[in-house]
């Protein structure tokens, strides 16, 4: 199956691996602290030096070191990992929550860099760049007709804060080339995708990861929703693989009363550190619900566990990933890093929700969620296997379980949610963004000046884009008949059109209208 390149947001870098909890970082000097304290460790250093100086052929000893480090980490747990320099920059930006660049969401369309949408109030938007513009040159570097890899494109457009790049643009809508000078600036990497009111008193907030800026983004959204009348709050943590546990703790503190336990950790020496809620909290009285699924992990599970174990709200969805380990990061001088598990964390009732793992068998561990399809637990709550020996009780007497993820209070199965899960996985993939961009590129003027309410009426009434999308898939080698899931396909197509035309919030405005977890929760209320 051949699918065109998915569009690439310049302001979104490497995705987080499933299940990250980072509890701080070791300083640069720590590298020296761990070097050669005994003969076994000295042996490795001497071997590398011996190969470097005496081996009969030239050898890249750096690559040998990387292999060795990876092998060592592979003997620990699935979440202790080595991150090479080529990946660490992007991971660090993603976790920091910003980077320096020009601020465009772009797509490699045919042989050129096509702008899907400039970041709102970003450098490119301020310089007058528009959706549909093609970037031909960055200064004197040619960007079209070369099939450049993504990292080369990023390096051409990113740079030092305040530095300037001259872009040569082809504006299709006016059929002309223009030169635009753009001053690079800090571009936020949002971890809160959207927040909006679902009805007069229910607010919704989507968190995609826990980065250094997440709590501040969350607080802004929370206060806005409260101002709009929200007395019920839904926090969507589906597919959120984690991040900084401190950010999840700070968010939990907004809902819990003073001195309620949020989480505690235990290290190899048996030292226990407990974290409690403080007197502050802007939503200690309203109703709280957390949406989770099989890809909600680590910091997401810390937040969900704190809400569930304190009888503070309702957990909705499917059993979460099951990751109860805390990592600390150590940086090396070459730009690489090691993320090492230093403790286990426990929910307020004392649960460890870490699922079992075998050392050195990461593939089985990370594919465990696939077994949930086979045993039926993604479709039926009764298929979830939990050990009676891992029962815990909340203060109000509710039974909760440890040993492999957070089991929801209100189960919503995959079949009920999607009808055909393969279709929805497709509709949530980048190929939909590609299709929508290409359709807009052909006739962007058809939507000029159209109000969102009128847009929704127009899109619901017509099957034109549904039919074109079916043909688009066939042309890309995907033989998938969509007619049986027409309503689902149209909903996601319309939502993606809304995202590219109006913004992220409008995507969720459309998608959530028929979201099964949302509907089940609102029906319960």
Description:
By secondary structure, the protein is α+β, with helices and mostly antiparallel strands. The strands form five sheets. Strands 1, 5, 6, 7, 8, 9 and 10 form a seven-stranded antiparallel β-sheet that branches. Strands 2, 3, 15, 16, 17, 20 and 21 form a seven-stranded mixed β-sheet that branches. 35% of the residues lie in helices and 23% in strands. It starts with 7 loop residues before the first strand and ends with a helix. Strand 12 and strand 13 (202-207) form a beta hairpin. The protein has 19 helices and 24 strands. It folds into three domains: 1-34 and 45-97 and 189-411, 2-enoyl-CoA Hydratase, Chain A, domain 1, CATH 3.90.226; 98-188, Pdz3 Domain (Roll), CATH 2.30.42.10; 421-524, no CATH class. Keywords: Hydrolase, Membrane, Protease, Serine protease, Transmembrane, Transmembrane helix. The chain crosses the membrane at residues 7-28. Belongs to the peptidase S41A family. Residues 88-143 form the PDZ domain.
């Amino acid at each position: 199956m051949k699918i065109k390149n998915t569009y690439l947001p310049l302001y979104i870098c490497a995705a987080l691996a499933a299940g990250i909890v980072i509890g701080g970082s070791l300083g640069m000097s720590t590298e020296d602290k761990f070097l050669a304290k005994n003969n076994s460790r000295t042996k490795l250093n001497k071997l590398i030096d011996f190969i470097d100086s005496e081996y009969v052929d030239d050898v890249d000893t750096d690559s040998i070191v990387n292999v060795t480090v990876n092998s060592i980490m592979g003997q620990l747990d699935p979440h202790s990992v080595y991150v090479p320099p080529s990946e660490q920059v992007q991971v660090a930006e993603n976790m920091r929550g910003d980077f320096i660049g020009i601020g465009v969401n772009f797509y490699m369309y045919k042989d050129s860099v096509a702008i899907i949408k400039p970041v709102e109030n970003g450098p490119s938007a301020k310089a007058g760049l528009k959706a549909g513009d093609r970037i031909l040159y960055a200064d004197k570097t040619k960007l079209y007709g070369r099939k450049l890899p993504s990292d080369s494109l990023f390096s051409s457009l990113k740079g030092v804060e305040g530095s300037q790049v001259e872009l040569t643009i082809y504006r299709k809508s006016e059929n002309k080339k223009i030169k635009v000078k753009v001053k690079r600036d800090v571009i936020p990497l949002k971890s809160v995708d959207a927040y909006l009111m679902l009805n007069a008193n229910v607010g919704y907030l989507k968190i995609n990861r826990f980065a250094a800026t997440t709590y501040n983004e969350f607080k802004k959204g929370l206060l806005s929703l409260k101002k709009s009348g929200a007395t019920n709050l839904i926090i969507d943590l589906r597919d959120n693989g984690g991040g900084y546990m401190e950010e999840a703790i700070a968010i939990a503190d907004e809902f819990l009363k003073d001195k309620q336990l949020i989480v505690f950790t235990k290290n190899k020496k048996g030292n226990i550190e407990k974290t409690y809620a403080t007197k502050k909290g802007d939503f200690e009285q309203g109703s709280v619900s957390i949406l989770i699924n099989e890809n909600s992990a680590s910091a997401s599970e810390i937040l969900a566990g704190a809400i569930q174990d304190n009888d503070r709200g309702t957990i909705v969805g499917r059993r979460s990933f099951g990751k109860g380990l805390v990592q600390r990061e150590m940086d090396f001088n070459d730009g690489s890093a090691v993320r090492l598990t230093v403790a286990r964390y426990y929910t307020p009732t004392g649960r460890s929700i870490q699922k079992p793992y075998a050392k050195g068998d990461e593939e089985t561990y990370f594919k465990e969620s696939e077994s949930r399809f086979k045993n039926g637990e993604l479709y039926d709550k009764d298929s979830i296997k939990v050990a009676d020996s891992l029962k815990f009780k909340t203060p109000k007497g509710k039974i909760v379980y440890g040993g492999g993820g957070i089991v929801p209070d209100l189960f919503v199965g995959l079949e009920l949610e999607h009808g055909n899960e393969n279709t929805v996985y497709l509709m949530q993939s980048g190929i939909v963004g590609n299709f929508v961009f290409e359709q807009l590129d052909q006739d962007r003027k058809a939507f000029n000046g159209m109000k969102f309410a009128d847009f929704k009426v127009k899109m619901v009434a017509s099957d034109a884009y549904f039919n074109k999308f079916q043909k688009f898939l066939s042309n890309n080698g995907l033989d998938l008949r969509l007619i049986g899931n027409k309503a689902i396909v149209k909903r996601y197509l319309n939502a993606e059109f809304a995202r590219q035309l109006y913004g992220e919030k409008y995507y969720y405005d459309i998608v959530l209208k028929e979201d099964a977890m949302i509907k089940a929760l609102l029906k319960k209320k």
